[in-house]
Specification:
This protein is of the alpha/beta class and 245 residues long. It folds into two domains: 117 residues, 3-Layer(aba) Sandwich (D-Maltodextrin-Binding Protein, domain 2); 112 residues, 3-Layer(aba) Sandwich (D-Maltodextrin-Binding Protein, domain 2), CATH 3.40.190. The protein is 34% helix and 22% strand. It contains nine helices and ten strands.
Length: 245
């Protein structure tokens, strides 16, 4: 999805910002992609700032000099979705790292986004703590290379498990028709922090640093934080909790 309003404009990968444009008069061209793609765009200097959710990688890229001025702005959480009868018995799981051990033991299907998104990165992090990342020879593991909503629908069709951010699940209009339920949530490993950061103007001099800085300032301001907290889906679910410093 791309859109822009008034000039001057800058480019951001992550989240639409029409309220910011109204407040500032600065137009924003949105490139809505997953976290991995957004970070690649930023490293290449094809956008001016990114709004993503892969904290460890974000901090690493700041340290490597690709980005500056990283701020945390909001959070939600990841959930594990699965068949309502929970054949892998994940509801009894004591640690998030046991998810893939149980799925492997039971031979049940797991559907992965497989797209290097923030959600896919978190899946990999959880599987790494289990001591073994699923690979191509694992017939129970389906890497589909799709966005979150499509991945959830495939999991429903295949009667498998998947990991999702809670906001996408809540906002899906057809979720009541899907044969899935939340089978695991609430673990610290499933906490989902979002951050915003600007492409380093020292390495990418064409970056509209000052306009992007005003966007970051707005997101972390009382006005921006209130707007984030008021953002709801069509069913009235609050999708993000603001937590800027």
């Amino acid at each position: 999805m791309r859109f822009h309003h008034f000039h001057p404009e800058f480019r951001t990968a992550g989240l639409p910002a029409p309220l910011f444009t109204t407040d500032s008069g600065i137009g924003v061209q949105i490139i809505a992609v997953g976290t991995g793609a957004a970070l690649t765009l930023g490293k290449k200097g094809d956008v001016d700032c990114v709004l993503v959710h892969a904290k460890d990688l974000e901090v690493q890229l700041v340290q490597e000099g690709y980005f500056v001025d990283r701020k945390e702005i909001m959070y939600n959480d990841f959930i594990i979705l699965g068949p309502k009868n929970d054949p892998a018995e994940l509801k009894d799981t004591k640690m998030a790292s046991d998810v893939f051990r149980k799925i492997l033991d039971k031979g049940t299907i797991f559907v992965s986004r497989g797209d290097n998104s923030g959600t896919h990165m978190r899946e990999n992090k959880i599987s790494d703590t289990a001591g073994r990342r699923p690979a191509g020879e694992d017939k129970w593991y389906l890497s589909v290379g799709q966005g979150m909503s499509k991945t959830i629908r495939i999991a429903s069709e295949k009667q498998g498990y998947t990991i999702s951010d809670r906001g996408t699940w809540l906002s899906m209009q057809d979720k009541e028709k899907l044969d899935l339920a939340i089978v695991l949530d609430g673990y610290p490993a499933l906490f989902n922090q979002y951050g915003v950061m600007i492409v380093n103007p020292e390495s990418r001099p064409h970056v509209k640093y000052h306009a992007a800085g005003k966007f970051v300032d707005w997101l972390t301001s009382a006005t921006g934080q209130q707007a984030i907290g008021a953002f709801k889906d069509n069913s009235g679910n609050i999708l993000f909790t603001p937590n800027a410093d």
